[in-house]
Structure formats: C-alpha cells, structure tokens
Amino acid sequence: MNHKLWPLPPGSHISDEHTSLTAKQLELAVYQLAQQLSKMSARCIALELDNGVPWMVLDLAMQQAGIVALPLPSFFTAQQRQHALDTAQPDYVLSESCHQGQSLWVAGTELRLTKLEYKQQAQAFPKNTQKITFTSGSTGNPKGVCLSNKQLIQVANSLVQRTALSRAKHLCLLPLAVLLENVAGMYAPLLTGGQVHAPSLRTLGFDGIELVQPQRLLTYISTFAPHSLILVPELLKGLVQGAENGWQVPTSLQFIAVGGAKVSAKLIARARQLGLPVYQGYGLSEAGSVVSLATKGSNNLHSVGRPLEHVEYHIEDDELCLVAPHFLGYLGEPHPTEQHYRTGDLVRVEKGELFIVGRKSNRLILANGRNVSPEWPESELLNQTAVTQAVVFGEAQAHLVALLWAPENVSDQQLNSALARVNKALPSYAQIMRYHRLATPLSVDVGHLSANHRPKRAAIAHAFSDILNDLYQEQPKMTFFEQLVAKTEAQRQYLLSAPIISEALAGKVSIDQYVAFLTQAYHHVKHTVPLLMACGARVPEHKEWLRDALAEYIEEELGHQEWILNDIAACGFDKEQARASKPAMATELMVSYAYDTIARNNPLGFFGMVHVLEGTSIALADSAASEIKTSLALPQKAFTYLTSHGALDQEHVKFFQGLMNRITDADDQHAIIHAAQRFYHLYGNIFHSLSAEHGLAKIRDQQVSA
C-alpha cells in the first residue's frame, strides 16, 4: 500500500443523513480501510452502492490501496451491468443488498463482498488505471473508459479554479457512480476544505434515477441549504417548476452546474429569474468528465463556457478535438497513441466560449443536400414553454418532421403557435414541416432516452416507425422515390445504429474490422450481376424499358467484386483467402432473400436492394474511407470500392430516382418498398455482426479455416 491520498485541507468533511466525518476522521477511516483492502490482494472491486459516506470512504481507500474502482450505477440495465463485469472482471462486487459473501464494515455500515470467478484470465488494465467508468450511452454495451487518479484530480483542481468556490457545502443529487458527481461534486469541494453531503438517493425522493417525490427533494435542499448542486436538465426542470409553484429557493445557493445533455437556453433564463444560479457545462468521460463550464462571466445562455484551464483543443471540420486528453484508453483496446481525441461533437467558438451544435453522428443530410444537426431545431423547440420534449428526423427527406411531447395543459393551438415561432427563426431547410404530438413522454424505462435523458434516435425511430412514415406519406405530390425514402426511414435508422458505422466515421475501426467489412462486401457484391440478370429474365415484356435499365446496371457493375479483393490485398491481407472464405450468416441471408424475392415474389422488389446498397454507400462511403485511411495510414488503393461508390456517384442516384418515378403500378411500388424495408434490416444485420466481437471473430476464423 504505497499510494498516498491527495491532501485533505482542514475543514473538509463528508456526511450523509446518518454519519459525518471530519478531515482527520476521514483520513483515519480511509487509511484503516485501505490497509484492510490491501490484504485482499484485489486488483479491481466493483461498487454497487447508493450514495453515502461508505461510498466516499471506499472511493478514497481504493485510491490509497492502489485498487481499481469500477462504479456500477443503479440505473444500468442487467445487460449493461453484466457487460461491465464481464469486461473489467473485478475480483469482488461490493454491495448493500446482497446477502451472500463476507461482511465488510465501512463507516459503521455493513456491506457485502461477493467474490467473482472467471473462466478466462483477466486482461491487463492500462498502466495507472484507478477508475473504470462505463457510461450508459446510447448503445447496450458501451466501452469502459480507463482513467488515472492524476487526471481526475487535475479536472477537479481546474473546476475549483473556474468556480472560485471555497469551503463550499455541496449536496450530491446525482449518483456518485456517475463520474460528473464523483469528480465535480466530491473531489472538487474536498480540495477546497468544503463539505460533501451525499444522502442516499432514496432519502432524496428518487427511485433509481427517476425522481418520484419532487417535494421531498425540494424540502431536503431547503433544509441543508447547500452552496452548490450538479443537475441534469430533467432535474433542473423539476427545481424550476417547484420554484414557480411556490418553493423558496435557498439564498445559500451560489453555483448550480447543469450538464449531461443539451440544456434549453430558455430553461436557464427561467431558472435564473427564480434565483437559481445555473450555469451550463460540457464534458465526456474520456476527458475526466468536464471539458468546459460557464460562470458568471458567461453572458450567452447558449454557451457551455470556456474550456477548463488544463484543456487544450482544436477544431477539425466543425468537430471538437481534445489535445492529449490524458485518458488511458478503453478497456480491452490498445492504448491510444494519437495526441488528440475526436469527441464527435460539432461546435463553434465565439470569444473563447464553446457552443455545442450537435453530434457528428446525428447530422442529417436532406434530399436537397443540406446538412442539419437535429439538435439545432430541437433546441429551438425546447426554448418554447409549450414544448417539453422534441426529437427531429429527416435523413434523405425533402424536409424535417418532429415528435413532440407537451404537458396536458398545453393546447394543440399553443403547440402550433410555438412551432410557428420556431420556424420563423429558422432557415427554410431547417424548419419543421410536420409533427406528431406524443400521448406520453419519452422515457428511460422503455429505452427511448439514455440515463442522462439524451434521445436514443434509432430506438425512437423504430418505436414510432409507422407514425414517422405517415408524417411523410400524407404529404401531397410526393414522388414514388420520395415515398420509398420516407417509408423506409425507420429501417434505415436500424442500419445506421450499428456501432461500427459511427466508429468508422470517427476513424476508430481496426484494420481487421475494415478487412472483415470488405470480405462481406465481396460475398454480396459478387452476386450483383447474377441478381441483375435474374431480375431482367423475369421482367415482363410490357416493362421492356426496365430491362434496358438493368442492362445498363450490369455493364456498370461488372467486375466490382475484384476491386474489393484488390482493396483487401492493398491492406496486406491474402485476397485469395478472402475469395475462398464463407460469408457470414447475415450476408448469406441477405443474398438468399434477394434471389428469393426475384424468383418467388415480384422481381421488381430487387430494386429495394439497389436503393438500400447504393443509398447507404453514397451517404457514408466517402466519409468512412477518409477517416479509416487517416487512422490506419493505408494507401489510397485500399479504398477503390468505397470511393467508387461514394458521394461523387450522384449520377447513379439521379438515374435510380428517375427509374423509380416511372413505376406507377401500386403492386410494384409496394413490392419495392417492402423489399427495401427488409433489405435495410438484412444489410443492417451485416454491420451489426461486424460490430460484435464474436461476430468479427467468427468471420476471421472462417477466413483462416478456408
């Protein structure tokens, strides 16, 4: 036990509703527990505890004992929890509720240590790893971010410098298992000699992360009279509504940080008018939780403030990149060698302050070629009092639509007026042409929102696919191609939700993954010409013009599978091994369904596959090729297939649009739309299989065995 605890200034202390420890008492409790933990020879312990003094003592004792902490938030699903355990392989899980395992007394509270056993040897953590945080994110199995104690204390010190709070009383309203509350709500106040009060979330009126007793929370805040709080937007709304309904905001409050998701500027303005000193921040786990924070000197309500003093950054193609972010890497992945980290967030800078525009992966490309970050019109909608939730869609469409939720006391007329005000302030291409009013709000419980209340767009699109399709279907004068795009939007979102797509666009795929993708592309592209021939053979005589079009496609597509094999060779792999390999199940099923559609159903359904493959390539190929080429330092000749099917291939799109708009038979139109919906799912399964480690391993094994 040779890890020294960072110094606690006199006056600093921690407490919950049952226990209070002064600085000296805390140091003694931490030292004694660290000695006890050191005897266990554990390299990692998972913490599955509610807020309280035991959580804080354990966190500090594990630092002193040199044991890696794996906090498990209570809001994790069973799948997310198990994924974190399987990936990190902690020696023990420490909890309050488990009746098994040995007892461990911490600050007068009996906890239970459950020993875990694994069949495989645990993978090594990056050097200096002290904490592993799994954020809930928008996917089922997020990555484990490995962080050092040095980085976390650096962030905490910068926060102390930015807020200028000294000896502050901080009340924890978020789980300490959330990195933001852990660093900004616990470490930062202790560094100033302040008090950290962390009662159990149940005491505050929470059930999990849902606030079920808001009045109980408001009363606790009034009684404790804190100097500082950290909130997510949903909690801020609760405090604002409470103040508007008569709750007296404590005059003790000096600073309230709000983050985790984009905050409505109007909500911040309402909060400040009610005496809530709210300031917006921005951060991510890889940066130790906080990157920038607004303060009293930040007058623009849309700003997330200036970056913290230790943060270095630059902007590439509107994306925020952090210079030497200091995180140690992702669990189970190679240590990052690049000196900058692409955050995936689109930003602009004005007078040194950051303004978050949206997520790069969320950016929509309309049918007219204009790029729109949905967070832009969404934030304008959320600035309206009438609108509580807003999610905007419109990829490849002529215009945007939205799903909106408003309280029952807001009339449809008020909602329409709010939308009219928003559209008046937006350019025509970013305006919301139609919307659907949701009967119930989007929630975390049903999987529509992440734990920090960000919309899970793919899940929402899937759940409301019929409604989204209807929003476009009912538009007058819609061409068949526009109908095809509109009625397949939900299925397209499933394909785009595959993690490997966002990883490719961020340049985070390995060369094995890229070659695995090319191998599967070879296995379906080699069937393109035979499928075109089969389709042409079944086209009826009165549609001879379609046969001519198919002949043009055949001439264009001949030999493309050999391009892919040459790309594989340019990556340093054996192309003949790829040629001889077997396709993945997802690939084989998509090809089989294409042949079956032509032979058993309407042969024109094959154009659904053309729409899916060409549309996906044109939207993603160029960006993916550019990012992968840069990140893997591959030659240009390794990207013949992607670049030949990218955005420059617009003539193919125009040709296909004209072809589809000549199809007027309702049965043919239905067959194409139906097939396209199926092909989006089948093609999406290929990308999802590439995203799964076991799927990639299978593909690689098949190549080796062949």
Structure notes:
By secondary structure, the protein is α/β, with parallel strands linked by helices. 45% of the residues lie in helices and 16% in strands. The strands form eight sheets. It has a five-stranded mixed β-sheet, with helices on both faces. It has a five-stranded mixed β-sheet with strand order 14-15-16-17-18. The chain has a four-stranded mixed β-sheet with strand order 2-1-11-10. β10, α5 and β11 (195-197) form a beta-alpha-beta unit. α17 (511-525) runs parallel beside α22 (585-600). The chain is globular and about 90 Å long. Mean pLDDT is 88; it is low at 692-706.
Helix count, per DSSP? Answer: 27
Given helix and strand content, the structural type is alpha/beta
Number of strands: 28
Please compute the radius of gyration using only Cα atoms.
28 Å
Envelope shape = globular
Report the span from N to C terminus.
52 Å
Give the amount of beta strand, in percent.
Answer: 15-25%
Low-confidence stretches: 692-706
Major sheet attributes: 5 strands, mixed
State mean pLDDT (0 to 100 scale).
88
Side by side, the strands of the main sheet go 4-3-5-7-6
Quaternary assembly:
single chain
Classify the helix fraction into a percent range: 40-55%
